[in-house]
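Submission sheet (multi-component)
Chains listed below:
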Amino acid sequence: MDLQTWTYLIVGLTFALYIAIAIGSRVKTTRGFYVAGGHVSPLANGLATAADWMSAASFISMAGIISFSGHDGAYYLMGWTGGYVLLALLLAPYLRKFGQYTVPDFVGQRYYSKQARLVAVVCAIFVSFTYVAGQMRGVGVVFSRFLDVEIGLGVLIGMGIVFLYAVMGGMKGITYTQVAQYCVLIFAFLVPAIFISMSMTGEVFPQVGFGSTVLDGSGRDTGVYLLDKLDGLHRELGFAAYTNGKKETIDVFFITAALMVGTAGLPHVIIRFFTVPRVRDARLSAGYALLFIALLYTTAPAVAAFARTNLIETVEGQPYASMPEWFHNWENTGLLAWVDKNGDGLIQYAPGGAFGKMPGDKSLKLVRDPERGGLGEPRYANPKADGPNELYVDRDIIVLANPEIARLPNWVIALVAAGGLAAALSTAAGLLLVISASISHDLLKNILMPGITEKQELLYARMAAGVAVCIAGYFGVNPPGFVAQVVAFAFGLAAASFFPAIVLGIFSKRMNREGAVAGMVVGIVFTAAYIIYFKFVNPEANSSAHWLFGISPEGIGTVGMLLNFAVALSISRLTPPPPESVQRLVETIRVPR
Amino acid sequence: MQEMQEETSQPDPDAAAIEATHRAYWRANLRLMGWLLAVWFIVSYGFGILLVEPLNEIRVGGFKLGFWFAQQGSIYVFVVLIFLYAWKMNRIDRKFDVDES
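Outcome: structure written.
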């Protein structure tokens, strides 16, 4: 069977599975809609949380980012996993005991204030929308690359599927589709990784192969460690060693912290822990969640190193005419491009860019010429960049083209498409539920229209989910140019707003409304101002010389968090303590029974 | 402060005993958390970031140790920490008789 047929078959089967689950898990109550009735087992919640958390970016882009940044990719790996330790130890069990439906619920009740709830609602909606637009885009991109479908149509199909199970089944539908989606995405990620590890190092586990010696073409052990070989290749080509860091230590420290704390403060992750029956289940399912996430997160850096070695060995110094088929396939998608700067017909790969931007463009976009070059290679209207490098490689190719580069069968390649879709859809659904619950439960039921019945609230929840799917779809088709820039926002804001407010709400009985609101406002304003200044107002100044203490906008959420803690603690000591009933609430949530 | 006043105004010995148990339970929880978070900090920020260069002088198989902690080891430790916490807390819950039935 050819690739196209395989892809339609596998993607079609997975979609049929998601729809079947959606039909099987309709809900009739708000408790069912918001927290799946609270009946999810710790194992199922762990699987669902892992799928919820691992987005299109984790699946498609992360290995590529690591592949091109070497050691420095570590802050994503540690940042996006270490947050679960904070979540399990500082938040999940207590929020489960508190036992409401949303994060603004906790903030609103613990700080006995509608204003505090409103601040939390605005943050939750903002953080979730920035995130969900990227997921819908991811769905469209996978469709267009693997199935030759227009991005717009791809987004529409994705919207239809998510609409079905999010609107009908709420959290219950989302949870069980996420369980299925985790299985699809992890299988799709591990199968190519294991194949490649075996062919390059003879080790079944990529995590072991990563630190083993490489085999030569006929399968004999060369006695050279993979990472030494890669460092050697980097040295020859003039790149910095793969296993050495390049970024400033202070910046790496703050970015890692912002990602960790941001992860622990993201509402769509937190609400997953409202769905298990007991406090002890919340603790255990955090462990399962990280275990399932770690399966992908410890494989990704191995894939990154394998793919980087493979890529350099296949292309560097080789004649263009001898390139394998995958090279041409990916040239057609615009993720790979070659320009023969010195006219020798060989591919030279070196640090620096191959192409320059088109006049007027803000970022590099390749523009194809209708005519091909003398060797049949595509040509581009873009100016050539200075320097010897002739090869443009998009980082996403590391995961997407990996199976082809390793000459794996067509069904494995089709699996990668289904995995990318599963990763994007599962995260999108989790985010949509946060938006829907924020509007129907927090904004309508608890602030604007307290008189509505449960039935009405449920109807509003479904409507909000439906509208949110449409807005997310719109942004998926017409991505605002700033999406890439605002991802730093999502983590920074979660770190600077929710995390301190929730932690203090649990661990400091003395923390009051005045302290928490002042802390959140200061944290948000500081973090937002810093990011907006360097990303939008004055992007030319976005370099370490101008940063505060050398901390980049990606890491500034950590400073925002520290400011939030400091302001909240001092203001709360100068203002009256919280009412007796709130202090008793804190005592109750600290104890499981 | 308010807490203390409340306690003295409540003569019920059972309530006072329960409160004392809860306070001891909370201290045990905080102690365990403190240890686990210390390990969390040392493997990631310590071994993976601040001490990465000296650790890279040590090699384990094909890995430089600092690089391994940054891209692999810290994640394994995180997983172990959460399961350890879940297991230990279940025991602490039972010891102070605050576990869920």
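Remark: The radius of gyration of chain B is 21 Å.
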